[in-house]
Amino acid sequence: MLLVEDESLVAMLAEDMLLDLGCEVAVAMRLDKALGYARSEAFDLAVLDVNLGDARSYPIADVLFERGTPFLFATGYGPQGLDVAYQGVPVLQKPYQAAPLEHLLAHLLTCEAPVRKGSASVPQACQCQTADAGGRSFRADPVR
Question: Which domains, ranges and CATH numbers included, belong to the chain?
Answer without folding.
Answer: 2-110 (3.40.50.2300)
